[in-house]
Recover the amino acids of this structure.
């Protein structure tokens, strides 16, 4: 902050900029004209009136010079330690995907206790249950795999591709990657733990899956694929073994799509013949690593998956040649039991995916909205819907740094913590594409508020939407929604705060340094608004604010206090933005305005 002499000069010069006609006082019209040069969205008529009322002590409708000085200096005196280092420089778009801990040359056993028994195995590696040594009740899944030998090729390895894919994908029905560890040739994927087992086991156990449950599960699978395809990513290995239930509760039908080891960006076409023969599309089988195919291969696999779930048998079998010929001819049993008594919509869903021509298959966006899937019972509204949506408004009123910290927490939460938020998100995502649009958010808020909500100003909703859309993608992604929907109770749990702390503790030292914060801020800035020097300055400010023992770094205990502070001041009215603007902040903004802009 500038010293008092500099501040005094700034006050004089800023008052002159407000006093456009030079009569020694600021009228409402002058105040409005200057504020609109800063932001027409932020300073509407009600905001102008609020500022005028705050500064106009004698209530004569004008702000005298003495009143202006009193207003600004009183704000500085009343808020000597108000901490908004990011917001003082303006908000920026945050790439929350960068809030993923990556550890190199670190022994994973120092952080986690790994069970000896595998919960999954295959060509991709081994999967174990692990417990965080700091909080034994925090369990994760750890996938251990061997890194390939380094080659001179600049092409990333399949493992590197898998990590990039999992970092990119952010959907309620896609297993979340929480961190990665590298130790010598070993690579560890730290993922959320889904304890309900594979869909494959349910099929084997019962011989098939009921139509009702199948439609509920397929709605989630299609939503996940619609999201992935929208980002140019094909899974290429859809099968019952890669669909897992979140919990052991048989009434809980929440699933996650796992194992993205064969996933790839499909722009430009794919040629590798990968995946399971039973579920592979004809064009994948015949590609022979030469002929290109598209993401429609996943649609075929969904069709086979649905068929197997409903009747317990694959639609095609025999030798490779017999299988391929039957698939190309679209020849499979579809009239005998149980198909003779199956819901016609279910049969239509399968039939329009098992098309030999990729172009003839139902596109994934339409499949996600198929009548058979939409007719399935929803997960049900939750009594916490109102609380979650109310939290959205509170979150939008936080400072940018607070939102960054809370998002780091949300990035580490698994399905067990997000059950209620998951239900609300799914209810709001009416088109099933895994992200929320302005229209979907508006509809949800109006539904919650009834007749009052119907009168909501679209501009207010758009302002709220912009605050929730951290990365500026024009949609609200799942993690963004979860961060905004969290309440203080969930985000203040010690195990959750610990996981977020380790996100900022980049070098695994046990504390957060200025260099750690500089790196996080620099990497999370989507549009590179700040220079490295500015990121370092902000990092120093954060350390100075929260380093209570004066050792030049933030310990876990200090981080806990920081996170508590993120929730100490919440706002119930996010559209009244001006009330969160301090007089000194406004002084700084106006002092930088070009006088030629104000002359008109």
């Amino acid at each position: 902050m500038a010293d008092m002499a500099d501040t005094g000069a700034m006050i004089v010069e800023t008052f002159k900029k407000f006093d456009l006609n030079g009569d020694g006082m600021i009228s409402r019209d002058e105040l409005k004209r200057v504020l609109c040069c800063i932001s027409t969205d932020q300073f509407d008529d009600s905001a102008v009136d609020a500022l005028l009322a705050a500064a106009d002590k004698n209530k004569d409708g004008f702000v005298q010079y003495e009143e202006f000085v009193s207003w600004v200096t009183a704000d500085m005196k009343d808020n000597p330690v108000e901490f908004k280092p990011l917001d003082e420089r303006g908000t920026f778009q945050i790439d929350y995907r960068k809030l993923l801990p990556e550890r190199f040359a670190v022994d994973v056993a120092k952080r986690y206790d790994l069970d000896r028994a595998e919960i999954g195995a295959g060509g991709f590696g081994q999967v174990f249950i692990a417990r965080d040594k700091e909080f034994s009740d925090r369990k994760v899944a750890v996938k251990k795999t061997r890194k390939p030998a380094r080659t001179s090729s600049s092409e990333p390895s399949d493992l590197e591709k898998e990590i990039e894919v999992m970092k990119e994908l952010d959907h309620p029905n896609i297993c979340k990657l929480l961190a990665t560890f590298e130790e010598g040739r070993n690579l560890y994927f730290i993922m959320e733990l889904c304890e309900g087992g594979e869909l494959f086991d349910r099929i084997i156990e019962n011989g098939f899956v009921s139509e009702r449950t199948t439609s509920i599960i397929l709605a989630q699978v299609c939503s996940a694929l619609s999201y992935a395809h929208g980002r140019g990513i094909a899974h290429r290995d859809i099968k019952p073994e890669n669909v897992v239930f979140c919990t052991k509760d048989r009434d809980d039908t929440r699933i996650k799509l796992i194992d993205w080891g064969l996933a790839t960006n499909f722009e430009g076409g794919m040629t590798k013949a990968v995946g399971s023969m039973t579920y592979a599309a004809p064009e994948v089988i015949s590609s022979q690593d030469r002929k290109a195919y598209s993401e429609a291969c996943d649609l075929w696999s969904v069709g086979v998956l649905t068929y197997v779930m409903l009747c317990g048998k694959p639609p095609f079998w025999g030798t490779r040649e017999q299988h391929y010929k039957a698939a190309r001819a679209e020849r499979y049993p579809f009239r005998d039991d149980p198909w003779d008594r199956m819901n016609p919509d279910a049969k239509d869903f399968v039939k329009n995916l098992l098309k030999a021509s990729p172009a003839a298959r139902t596109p994934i966006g339409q499949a996600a909205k198929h009548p058979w899937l939409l007719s399935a019972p929803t997960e049900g509204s939750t009594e916490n819907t109102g609380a979650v949506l109310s939290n959205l408004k509170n979150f939008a009123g936080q400072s940018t740094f607070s939102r960054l910290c809370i998002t780091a927490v949300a990035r580490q939460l698994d399905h067990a913590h997000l059950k209620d938020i998951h239900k609300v998100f799914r209810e709001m995502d009416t088109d099933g594409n895994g992200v929320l649009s302005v229209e979907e958010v508006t509809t949800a808020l109006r539904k919650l508020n009834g007749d009052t909500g119907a009168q909501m100003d679209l501009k207010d909703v758009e302002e709220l939407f912009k605050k929730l859309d951290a990365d500026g993608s024009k949609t609200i992604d799942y993690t963004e929604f979860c961060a905004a929907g969290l309440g203080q109770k969930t985000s203040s749990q010690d195990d959750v705060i610990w996981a977020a702390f380790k996100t900022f503790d980049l070098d695994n030292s046990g504390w957060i340094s200025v260099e750690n914060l500089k790196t996080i801020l620099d990497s999370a800035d989507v549009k590179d608004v700040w220079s490295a020097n500015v990121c370092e300055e902000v990092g120093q400010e954060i350390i100075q604010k929260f380093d209570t023992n004066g050792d030049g770094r933030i310990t876990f205990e200090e981080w806990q206090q920081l996170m508590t502070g993120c929730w100490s001041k919440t706002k119930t009215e996010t559209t009244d933005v001006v009330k969160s603007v301090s007089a000194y902040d406004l002084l700084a903004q106006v002092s930088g305005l070009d006088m030629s802009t104000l002359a008109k």
Notes: Residues 211-230 form the longest helix (20 residues).
